[in-house]
C-alpha cells in the first residue's frame, strides 16, 4: 500500500480584523471576559464580496505551490465546510473552476469542525488504494455569515478563513499512520443552524426567528469537547502503535484555549508541543486545523520525521483525530 502524506500546505485569512474591543460596542461583553474564557483576542471577517470558495482559492493556490504541482495534476478536490457559497453547486466545484483543475472530481464534505480530518481520511484512503494520485483537501469557512452579532454567547467565538493541503505519495515510514473518526448524532441539537434546509425552509418567519444563525449550547459542547479531544487523540495514537509520549506537535481544533489546555493535560504535553493560534483567528470550524498546520509549517515548527497529532470536534456531533509522520 502507498504511504500517503502531505506534499504542501497553504492558508488564507481575510484582511479585516474584528477585535474584542469592537465586539464590546456590539454586545454586552468585554475583552477581559473573552480572553479569560476563550483565549480569543481577534478574528478575521471576509470582505462583502468574498465567499467561502474565494477564501479556499487563495489557500489552495498556496498549497499547490508548496507541493510543486499544478492544478491540472489534481485528481480530486474535497472542501470541508458548513458555510458553502450556496446549496449547490458545491463549493468544491466552484473551487475546481477557479483553479482550472480540469481533471479533478470535486465534492463538499459536511462534518462541521471535524470536516478537515474527515477529508484527510477520505483522501488518504483513495490515494492508498491507487484510485487517485493527488488530492486537494481544503477547510474553508465564512462563519461570519451565519453568526448572530447580537448573541454574545456565540459572536465572540467565530471567524473566517481557509487552510488547504495537497495529499500524495510519500516515502515509506512517513505519512498518515492512523485515523479515528466518530459521530454522536444524538447530540446534534447542541450545535446547529436549523433554518434553510428541507426541515425548515427559509421564510420571512425563519429569518425573523434567527433560525439561519448558529445556535450553540456552549457549556454542553464544552464538556463534550474536553472529553472527546483526549479520547480521540489517544485512540488515534493507539491505532498508530504509539502513545502520548511520542507526540512532537499537537495541532488541535482552535475552539477555546481552556479546551486545548485540558487536552494538553490529559496528553501530558507542555504547551510548547502544541500549535495554538486561536488568539488571532478564533474558531474557524473546518479551517482551524489546516490554518494552524500551515502556520506551524511557515514558522519552521515541523521537521521531517516529526510525529504530529491533529484532533478536532464539532457539530454533528462529530470528532476526528489523526497521527501523521511528517
Ligand atoms: N461576555 C460576557 N459574558 C458572557 C458572554 C460574553 N461574550 N457570553 C456568555 N456570558 C455570560 C453568560 O451569560 C453567563 O452569565 P450568567 O452566569 O449570568 O448566566 C456567564 O457568562 C457564564 O457563561 P457560560 O456559558 O457558563 O460560560 P463558559 O465559561 O462555559 O464559556 C463558552 C462559554 C466560551 C461559549 C464555552 O462554553 C465554550 O467555549 N464552549 C464550547 C464552544 C465550542 O467549542 N463550540 C464549538 C463550535 S464548533 C462548530 O462546529 C461551529
* Secondary-structure element series: EEHHEHEHEHEEEEHEHEHHHEE
Instruction: Figure out the total of helices.
Output: 10
* Terminal Cα span: 18 Å
Cα shape: globular
**Radius of gyration, in angstroms, nearest whole number:** 19 Å
User: Overall mean pLDDT score?
Assistant: 97
Main sheet: strand order: 1-7-6-4-5
Core attributes:
cytoplasm, 326 residues, four-stranded mixed sheet, globular, FabH, alpha/beta, five-stranded mixed sheet, binds acetyl coenzyme *A, 24% strand
Write the layout of secondary structure elements.
Layout: E1 4-12, E2 16-19, H1 20-26, H2 31-38, E3 42-45, H3 52-67, E4 76-80, H4 91-99, E5 105-109, H5 115-128, E6 135-142, E7 160-169, E8 175-183, E9 191-192, H6 204-208, E10 215-216, H7 218-239, E11 249-252, H8 257-266, H9 278-281, H10 288-298, E12 307-314, E13 318-325
Parallel strand pairs: 4-5, 4-6, 11-12
Antiparallel strand pairs: 1-7, 2-3, 6-7, 8-13, 9-10, 12-13
Helix pairs in contact: 3-4, 7-8
The chain binds acetyl coenzyme *A.
InterPro entries: ACP_syn_III_C, ACP_syn_III_N, FabH, Thiolase-like
Protein name: Beta-ketoacyl-[acyl-carrier-protein] synthase III
Family: Belongs to the thiolase-like superfamily. FabH family.
Give your account of this protein's structure.
It comes from Paenibacillus nasutitermitis. It is a single chain. The chain has 326 residues and is of the alpha/beta class. The protein has ten helices and 13 strands. It has a five-stranded mixed beta sheet with strand order 1-7-6-4-5, sandwiched between helices. A four-stranded mixed beta sheet has the order 8-13-12-11, with helices on both faces. The chain has a two-stranded antiparallel sheet with strand order 2-3. Helix 3 packs across helix 4 and helix 7 runs parallel beside helix 8. The longest helix is centred in the last third of the chain and has 22 residues. It starts with a strand and ends with a strand. The model has no long low-confidence stretch (mean pLDDT 97).
